[in-house]
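Handoff note, outgoing to incoming analyst
You'll be picking up this chain. Sequence as last confirmed:
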Amino acid sequence: MLELGVKTLLAYLLGSILGSLVMGRLRGVDIREQGSGNAGGTNALRTQGWRFALGVILIDVGKAFVAVGWLPGASLPYVGFDPALDTRWLAVACAAAVVVGHVYPVWYEFRGGKGAATLIGAVAVLSPIALLPVLGMWLAVVMLTGFVGLGTMLGAATLPVYFALAQPANPAYAAFGLAMAAFVAYTHRSNIRRMRQGVESRAQRLWLLRPR
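Most recent structure output, in case you need it:
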């Protein structure tokens, strides 16, 4: 239990390092005071441009690679390895923690992003092939509707379906997929509200099948 607790906590702290606020510190801006007020990649792109947003995404995806790809197998002083701990459950615990840390960062008054880029990084380590249905769904929804948030939610919703079909003997990944699908829907609740009100903005360049 010590290994699980310590590594999950470290993954959360890694998640709390927000790419948008690191980049914003270098530029002298706080994107939580601009646009939608969200500290994620979409708001970074809309308010600061693609170069800034690219840096944000690299940091947010990169921290997931460290938290999920390196941390579970790392030998930490005074912690060691728990032979009774299933490494798959440890990996998904770190994956979930890094996403939660991004949304509720302890370093930034618990005001973070919506977790999409960090989740992509975590899934890329856990099961790279799972990104295909996730990104495919995201692209299809955005092309059809123009709603990036809706595409993100439905893309995340493909995770538990994929894991249930492709890896039925892996309950850890199935649980992770269900938890992340629900969590991403929760972090996008403001998008759901704006869509219901008819005021949600659309990605015009990606909305290829919009009515003419």
